[in-house]
Design a protein that fits this description.
By secondary structure, this protein is an alpha/beta fold. Strands 3-2-4-1-5-6-7-8 form an 8-stranded mixed β-sheet, sandwiched between helices. Strand 7 and strand 8 form a beta hairpin. The longest helix has 25 residues. It has 3 domains: 84 residues, Up-down Bundle (Four Helix Bundle (Hemerythrin (Met), subunit A)), CATH 1.20.120.140; 198 residues, P-loop containing nucleotide triphosphate hydrolases (Rossmann fold); 143 residues, Orthogonal Bundle (434 Repressor (Amino-terminal Domain)). 52% of the residues lie in helices and 8% in strands. Bound molecules: guanosine-5'-diphosphate and magnesium ion (MG). Magnesium ion binds next to helix 5.
Length: 482
Amino acid sequence: MFDNLSEKFANAFKYIQGKSKISEENIEETLRDVRTALLEADVNFKVVKEFVNAVKEKSLGEKVIKGVNPGEQFVKIMHDELARIMGDANEEINLDRPGIVPILVVGLNGQGKTTFSGKLALHLKSKKKKDVLLVPADTFRPAAKAQLQTLAKQIDVDCFDSDLSLHPKEIALKAIEEAKKLHKNVVIIDTAGRLHVDEELMGQLKEVKNALEYMNPEVLMVADAMTGQEAVNVSKTFHEAIGVTGIVLSKMDSDAKGGAALSIRHVTGVPIRYVSMGEKMKDLELFHPDRLAKRILDMGDVLSLVEKAQENINESDAESMMKNFQKGKFTVTDFLKQMEMMNSLGSMTSILKMIPGMGGMLRQIGDLSPAEAEMKRMKVIISSMTQEERDNYKVIKESRLKRIARGSGNSEDAVKDFLGKFKQMEQMMGGLASMMKGGGIPGMPGMGPQKGFRQEPGAAPQFPGGKQKKKSSKGPWGKGYF
Ligand SMILES: Nc1nc2c(ncn2[C@@H]2O[C@H](COP(=O)(O)OP(=O)(O)O)[C@@H](O)[C@H]2O)c(=O)[nH]1
Ligand SMILES: [Mg+2]
């Protein structure tokens, strides 16, 4: 998502890089390309026009700041304007009020309403410590009830046993009664959709909303980001017909061009509150316009990365790894844990994009999927290793090697290859650990020995534990284990 836009913006900025001052003439080409890029990303044309005008006005009006070049200044203005059209700060729904908060989830068919209902329930339960009741009220597609029940079970949240022969309004009212008995804080009602906006659907949703009006319900509209301007138009129609209090952009993990995210707030006036980023229940993010603007501009999103790490990484795992690391020990188990930590944060590409400046580099590298496939293969090999082997791979000789190859469905060469790579990693980790103790990174000129340590040019690199090993023709790490 946004890859294309990021790339085109980066190209557009080239025109003003190195200029000493932004002027009417030298900004023209940049603005023209920014405009084209936005239109191609399917951003609403009125939003584009307003955006480009605002950026132009600010760039020309801006005083030259010493030490900041006009290119950087321009990117900052772009960032601020992008964040502004998407809505400035994150506005999550307010649940800190007395009584039960009903949340109606609305939208067309297949947009991701049922999936989002489950994700929101999990988010409110785990992050906000709310007691949630999920309510299937899609009387149009009976299978939707079973779908929601399955999700509810998966995330361990109560699901109301709705009678689908009733009007959704009746279902909602009965569910609220039940929620009161169960002392719930939040009731999430998953409603029916249609293929297209129609009078009947709007009438039905309006009735449900009216019945709950006394409780001040939230109405969250789920819009599929892949449908671009269509999502914007449908949201506008829903808002005008029933009154929507927040928008959820779904399928943001797809290769949607970004038009919906960049226009929907501005066109409808309704804030985007959440972004749905995949089919798993934990794939839900709060919508942060400023962070998204940074991602679009390749400025990275370190805040989100840190948050993700805090949420997903098991502290005791990290601690035990750190202890091993300090001892200069690195086992296959540690390696597996590291890979799992990486995976829990998302795909390699998605993590790297959060690091400032990596977006552009990724575009040059192209596809990272071979590296991800390699990681998967390593995991399969490790899963065929016994604990003893994981703690000390050196016990793996011929017969064990055969068994691991067979068990993991790999060739013996593939297993050897993995062990060879692991040995390199072990040595590197050992080297890092000794450097932390003041030993210097082995084999790396300039990063080597600290003061008081002399090394002859061309001398064998320093290895973990201070031992000198023979230099081999295969570079500083020596030959592979096999
Ligand atoms: N990739 C991706 N797929 C999603 C997302 N949200 C929903 N889906 C998929 O889209 C399809 C329709 O979702 P569903 O929740 O049943 O839509 P509903 O008809 O609006 O309730 C399902 O196959 C979901 O797995 C998302 O954020 N990313
Ligand atoms: Mg559904």
